[in-house]
Amino acid sequence: MPETNLVSWNAILSAYSQNGDVERPKLAFSKMPEHDIVSWSALLAAFAQAGYLEDAKIVLDTMPEKNLVASNVMLSAYVQACRVEDAKSLFDGLSERSIVSWNAMLAAYAQSGDMERLKELLDQMPLHNLISWNTCLSAFAQHGQLKNAKRLFSEMVDRDIVSWSIMLGAYAQTGFVGEAEEIYNAMPQRNLVCWNSMLSGYGDSGQLSKARQLFDEMPERDIRNAAAWNTMIAAYAQSSQLESAMALFDAMKLEGIQPDANTFTVVLGGCAAAGAVAEVWRNWALLAEFGVAAIREHYSCAVDVLGRAGMLEESEEVLAAMPFVPDDVALGTLLGACWTQSDVRRGESVGGLVLEMEQHSPSRYVLLANLLATETVDRTVDVL
């Protein structure tokens, strides 16, 4: 067969491989009168991208000539499937490795939270690039290893916007707002992620004036940055400034920003915490208006506010009407309301549902025990 025909076959095979379909690549491969390294690699990629890792490994082992590209495809597939030990076995058996191979293994250890092997591998690498540094930086930040993250960040010769954003987010999310502010002010450029991280840091620490100033200075408070509106509304709500939170929510709607499920979680949660029953239902009605399907957290807010108001029957009705299986949060909220209102009968019923769950907070046992103990004391007093 002329070489041009093999090239054509490979083009067809590669095109099929991009669509997540394995049957057509298999059929095309079987019909080819001859194969080259490109053909085998395309078939391997088809299996790997579709998640057929055992078949992909068979192709890799069957290839008459292996190359690093094919091995890296298999390695990346193992990493994406969180099969760390399979990835390590393949990596250890490679006769040659590229920066892609090393970075894939870094990603594997980062995803699995194996910080020790991550640091060992980073030290063993003959060369690094920004992907290497940022992978490790992100892993340290996500697992609360701020000292390692700070050290690595200071050692990085090259940094990009991702590097700065990771470090800023690490400080902001762990309450080190001063350090986050230093990073923010030193950044050579900023994107929406950076603005939102700093805004979140101010909001979570209760620095509302700084949060609002930053919010007002943000260059893009449009549909792409609805998260900023949610963060600022949440900051007000968490600081018990419900009026300011609702005013900003109204401003959000007036500016044409589409509220999302997170927006309503923040709004309903703030109303529930303030015991504002009417506000909860007024904003609940807006869910349908904006085409937002009520999620579990929204129902939990309704259960909470009704329970706080002593409307236990209505709270229980909302719980029963949930189109989801009630979780520990919703049940625990109602159980707490039963304890506050000394409604032992209802508390026993809700407590039974809590105990049937596979996972629940140990504090629910204590709450239920205290509630039942109240009934015991009352009965003892009646007898006396």
From TrEMBL:
GO terms under biological process:
RNA modification; system development
Q: Does the keyword Repeat apply?
A: yes
Q: Cross-referenced InterPro entries, in alphabetical order?
A: PPR_At4g14850-like_plant (IPR046960), PPR_rpt (IPR002885), TPR-like_helical_dom_sf (IPR011990)
Pfam families, alphabetized: PPR, PPR_2
**Keyword set includes Repeat:** yes
PPR repeat intervals: 5-35, 36-70, 98-128, 129-163, 191-221, 225-259
Write down what this protein is called: Pentacotripeptide-repeat region of PRORP domain-containing protein
